[in-house]
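Support reply, case 0932

Customer input (verbatim):
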Amino acid sequence: MLRCVASLAVLLLIGSCVRGQSTPESQGGKRRIVLVTEYDDTRAGAEASQDIAAEMGFIDDAELQSYLRRVGERLVPYAPERPFDYKFQAVDQREPNAFALPGGYIYVSRGALALANSEDELANVLGHEITHSAERHAAARNQITLRQSPLLMPLLRFARIASYSRDQERAADRGGQRMAAEAGYDPAGMAHFLDQLRDVERMTFSVNRMPTFLSTHPGTSERVTDCSVRARSIEFQRRPETTEVRRTYLESIDGLLLGENPAEGVFEDTTFIHPDLGFRIRFPEDWSLENGRAAVGARSPDGEASIFLTVEPTDPRDGLDPEAAARLFLARSAGQYQADPRHSKHLQLGPLPAYRIDGRGIVDGRNVGAQLTFVPLGGLMYRITAVAPIRVSREYMGRARVTARSFRALTPTERHSVVEERLALAEAIRGETLADLSSRTDNAWDDQRIAILNGLPAGHVFEGGELVKIAIAKPYLPDSSDPVDPAERDAPEPEDAARAAEGPAGG
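Our regenerated output:
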């Protein structure tokens, strides 16, 4: 989060993106692009990969990235012939996911890596995505849209936009299993992975979890059965490099970060805490929470409204003056969404000076009401944006003001209270149960989770010597000791101070 400028707002299709012919709609903040040839795919994938790096980020583990590339490169010789230079990357996404961009850009999330239990499973997943890219399934969906309005929450929601057709999914399953088998992997790995993923989806990881590889690929139960049956009919022969598929795989993901990445901020209920940047903000109850590298925010239950926070670029000559930042924003962006500022005022959010603009604009062809609050903290300027259709905007702006008032610096205690979980390996003792092993190793997972994530039945008893995935929880160490001015940090709770200075939430 917050590593890109706040004006970055890109919405991509899974496996789609990006250069080519654009329609006149691009003048209104949208750009529609058609993929025509495989050479367009290569250019499109290269451009989209930059957005992936900016919005999702890659896992900072050179050995793991190298391992992933080695497995992927074993499959490439058996892929349909294309002029693609395949690239494999592990992305920093907690949900189990995998996707492909045009031109051979293949991505696997750390959530998927944590879920898989062998190199067989990983190879089948990579083969599946290679097939999507090689067969140009993205091009079959014709055109895509890039949204760039600063009043849209700048989060990549890859899995929410479109999914492949059933025929394309079946083709990718077949192609992935065939490639895996020819490279010396068990083609049953696809069915095993999908089956585990289905079990994971039944657990409540988060009320607001992102879509995953499973939810974006339709007909999963049917596909599990089809993959299992198909695997029995495909012959494969192990190769020297594909014999220790479980141990090699587990040792490669040892130490992998699990759950939310504290370096990108974490949610505690509806309160977002960023220990590195030293702030917190509370979003409305029962809204859908979203966290990306360019923004953090929430959407109303009916999907009509959104409130999000981004870092706002400033002119160095203005310093951290919130009014100057607001004027710069309007000068840069007003024409894009036909901004009509109606009211503006200086505020105090606790000890923090702030500046708010209320107005109207056009986003995606709709008339919207918007409220933008600019506030400096810790050497950065933040923009808190609330947007809703004009017909209902009044009922949401009170919530937006409450959200803005909740923005404040973290105390030292709060900054050091964040916990991270990392994957570790434990060797089982003969006769012990999952509960026994968890108790002995201080495993942070409950019995259901350790069973599912290790592909084991709930009542499993170990023979002894098996490697088992567990989770170890420990305090997160913020990137810097204290990025926030003490005067900003030690002030009274801003909700009370700001409420007194500004008046009722509905005012």
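We compared this against your earlier run and they match. Two observations from our side: The chain is about 35% helix and 25% strand. The two ends are 31 Å apart (CA to CA). Please reopen the case if you see a mismatch on your end.
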